[in-house]
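Dear U.,

Please find below the material for section 3 of the report. The protein was modelled together with zinc ion; I have listed the sequence and SMILES used, followed by the predicted complex structure.
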Amino acid sequence: MRGAVLYGPRDIRFVERANPAIIEPTDVIIRISATCVCGSDLWPYRGIEPINEPRPMGHEYCGIVEEVGSAVRNIKPGQFVVGSFFASDNTCAICQAGYQSRCVHKEPIGAGGAQAPLLRVPLADGTLVATSHPTT
Ligand SMILES: [Zn+2]
């Protein structure tokens, strides 16, 4: 697949990247329907936040579930889902207090880069919200 990657200040390239795959049994793969640029993407884009290596872009996203890991219970293939910029388990004490972005098991979605056709979402049951949007 091709996806957006930041190589340095004001240097974004749309390059060939490996398709994401299920790594952990709590992962899902979604096909991105829409993604966008977040204000926090602009810090490294402007060179204010240095980057040391090319970085996939994008952590704001929604899409349709294509594949689910063996331990995913609530997210199903074909659902239209919206996710957060941090994957979270939604079960730890911090999540239960309403601060999922500080989950003890949080993982940054930006590492996978949502500005691409496919995205791996860790901790899918805690991270994604399925909507009633019809997908067929
Ligand atoms: Zn948590």
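For the text of the report, you could mention the following: DSSP finds three helices and ten strands in the chain.

Regards,
Y.
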